[in-house]
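name: query_chain
kind: protein
chains: 1
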Amino acid sequence: MRRHHGLARAYNPSMQTIDFRLEGEYVELNQLLKLSGLCDSGGAGKMIVASGDVKVDGKTELRKTCKIRAGQVVSLADIMIRVTG
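structure:
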């Protein structure tokens, strides 16, 4: 099971960083948002991605089930998710 392992402060004091430990090869973007606690369901995650507000490695990502792998960074508003393996 994939788990979120707590919150930490990023270099930018106004941005929160979530370190997400990946257990497996990848996690779909909409599921990452759910598992990180940023939304209540995978469906809600899909709507957030469709809004154009989610970035993966600094680029807007519109693919709801984009495969996110260790080493990638996902951001939404003032929250950054660092995916580790």
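note: The longest strand covers residues 3-9.
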